[in-house]
Write a structure and sequence with these properties.
Elements lengths: L4 H11 L2 H25 L5 H27 L5 H5 L3 H4 L6 H27 L1 H5 L4 H28 L3 H26 L3 H8 L2 H10 L6 H29 L7 H15 L2 H11 L4 H6 L4 H23 L7 H32 L2 H6 L5 H33 L8 H30 L3 H27 L7 H33 L1
Helix pairs in contact: 1-6, 2-3, 2-6, 3-6, 3-8, 3-9, 6-8, 6-12, 8-9, 8-11, 8-12, 9-10, 11-12, 16-19, 17-19, 17-20, 17-21, 19-20, 20-21, 20-22, 21-22
């Protein structure tokens, strides 16, 4: 048998796809546009070296975020699909081993992200010519970006090997990467410079990235390379676990008593006991059967409420550990805006993922032949999303009002109050648009991952690209009205995308499902 035949096959398939080349060109174009805007913006009051350093840090942070999200978006469905479609057992009828399949999937699903990062690196090297950034900073940052990409893809693969559903694999992958990228650095800062804090920093990919970008890797060379080696070893550990589990994943072997009991408790925690399921069915079936179908699993609601609780803990910790101006209105607006982003991601994922799955397994065709009208199906699907997110979103808005009230008399601009009200209005408007656009993209895109990215880019990325262009053309005069310009641009785009999605879903749903 040839060496790693699945890798060769996956790379040949990727080489024949247009998005392999267009994605690389798009990444380079975005990097060049971001560099041009950053240099133009910073060159007005900073020297070339300082502007180059700002460009390097901003572009590196954007590339780091892309590497961090690559695993949950790309590889979390790599092995789940084989198990759902029943083709995993066919692969093991050949001479293939689990490691061959895992490495092959890794090569096929990572080629696009790797080429995109490779296209960004030449633009990331421009600040070396401007000064302010050393060759060592660029080299170590490139190493960290590729290592983070490798770890993210490996975490997505191992979660895909242990799960049968893409959303479950992606959710757990995001949780693990959140621990390595956000929770561990935060707890390390709280622990200080003791042994616990040092251990947490060794497992933190964000601390590793910060050492590389800031140039402090030279002073803490042992910590930097040790952290890089540990995270790289974690990636190989994930691949080994995925390969080891994959060989037995398709067998229907009887589970041990402990595993059966754990799965029973997990099912009760997710769906509730018999009495809770009966009450939920009685409450929601009269409204719309699709609303009950979408809200049987309570993990989503618990995750949203857990996010609200975590945000409250972080806010109280900032009040205790940070300076007294932590409760200023400016900090509150920024904190609440970034807290709103996971809610938007969840709505886009729920809308796109559910209908992509329902179209693939034939559920939507059965619904259309059952006598249910298109309006009933759409109202049930969107009503299920609304029923799940209404409570947490209201809690988020109330929490924002409370934090603004506590900031009265603190340093900050009174105009931040109007900006906060505008972000609350745009939160509801964005969630409404994301639900409609995600539903449409879940029908017309070939996979849930691409539908999710297309939804987020239309509602959350396009407004900022237009704003960057307006700032580039209008200069500093635009900053005085930037919040209101953001509301106007986002509102107009939301209205356009919502109307377009609603018109296509109401008029072409049967054709889209059949296609």
């Amino acid at each position: 048998m040839r060496f790693l035949p699945v890798v060769e096959r996956e790379l040949r398939v990727a080489a024949r796809q247009h998005r392999t080349f267009y994605g690389r060109m798009a990444a380079a174009a975005i990097a060049i546009a971001s560099a041009a805007w950053t240099l133009w913006f910073l060159a007005e009051w900073q020297a070339a070296a300082s502007a180059g350093k700002g460009l390097f840090e901003g572009l590196a942070a954007l590339a780091y975020l892309v590497c961090w999200l690559a695993g949950p978006l790309q590889t979390s469905d790599a092995l789940c699909r084989e198990r759902r479609e029943g083709t995993l057992g066919l692969l093991f009828l050949t001479d293939l081993r689990g490691f061959d399949i895992v490495v092959g999937k890794l090569a096929g699903y990572s080629i696009n992200a790797t080429l995109q990062i490779a296209a960004v690196l030449p633009v990331l090297a421009l600040p070396i010519l401007m000064g302010g950034v050393s060759l060592g900073q660029f080299g170590t940052t490139a190493v960290v970006l590729l290592n983070t990409l490798f770890l993210s893809l490996s975490v997505g693969l191992v979660m895909s090997a242990f799960s049968q559903h893409t959303r479950s694999a992606a959710a757990v992958a995001v949780l693990l990467l959140f621990l390595l990228g956000a929770a561990f650095p935060w707890f390390a800062d709280l622990a200080g410079r003791n042994a616990v804090g040092t251990w947490l920093r060794w497992f933190s990919i964000t601390d590793e990235f910060d050492l590389a970008v800031s140039g402090r890797y030279a002073r803490g060379v042992n910590d930097f390379w040790l952290s890089t080696g540990i995270t790289h070893g974690l990636a190989w550990l994930c691949l080994w676990l995925a390969a080891r589990h994959l060989a037995s994943a398709y067998h229907e072997a009887p589970k041990s008593e402990w595993v059966s009991a754990w799965r029973r408790r997990w099912h009760e925690w997710s769906f509730g006991d018999a009495r809770q399921r009966r009450e939920l069915r009685r409450e929601l079936l009269d409204l719309n059967p699709l609303i009950w179908l979408a809200n049987r699993n309570r993990l989503r609601a618990k995750a949203l409420w857990g996010l609200i609780a975590l945000a409250g803990i972080v806010w109280l910790s900032g009040e205790y550990f940070v300076s007294s101006d932590w409760r200023g209105w400016g900090n509150t607006v920024v904190f609440c805006y970034f807290l709103q982003m996971p809610f938007k991601w969840f709505v886009a994922s729920e809308a796109a993922q559910r209908w992509a799955d329902d179209r693939r397994n034939g559920t939507l065709e059965l619904l259309l032949t059952s006598g249910a009208t298109v309006r009933d199906i759409l109202s049930g699907h969107l009503g299920g999303i609304r029923h799940a997110f209404t409570g947490p979103v209201l809690a988020l808005m109330v929490g924002q009002i409370i934090m603004l009230f506590l900031g009265i008399g603190r340093p900050g601009d009174w105009s931040a109050l109007l900006v906060a009200l505008a972000t609350s209005v745009m939160l509801v408007w964005d969630l409404h648009t994301l639900a409609w656009v995600g539903t449409l993209q879940g029908l017309i895109k070939p996979g849930p991952g691409r539908a999710y990215v297309a939804t987020l880019s239309r509602v959350l990325v396009w407004p900022w690209l237009i704003l960057i262009g307006l700032v580039f053309l209008g200069g500093g005069r635009v900053f005085a009205i930037l919040p209101w310009l953001w509301v106007a641009v986002s509102g107009c785009l939301n209205l356009y995308f919502w109307k377009s999605a609603s018109r296509r879903l109401h008029g072409e749903l049967r054709q889209l499902v059949a296609g």
